[in-house]
Amino acid sequence: MLPHRDRSALRKIEEELAASDPEFAAALSHGSPPARSRLWFAALVLADITVLLMIILGLATGDTGLFLWGLVATPGLVWAHRARRPQDREHDTGSTA
What we know:
The chain has helices at 4-20, 22-30, 35-61, 64-83, 86-93. By secondary structure, the protein is mainly α.
């Protein structure tokens, strides 16, 4: 929690921003997620599908290499999902204030 002095300074800055550029202030307060966040999410979903297909096809065809590469990539994807910032996750769920 910020001290009272810092909170009041931030509130004052917010009020000045809202007065000078209301459209920008509205976009910051409850806008859509940035394009970079959407791109990151799309890349992760594509990687998830690719790894899942590698594992399934490796099992179905008996291709050990394909299966093992899918298993090797899985911890990296888990790390990538967990490394996403919490505010990115809030935007992806579609929650708005």
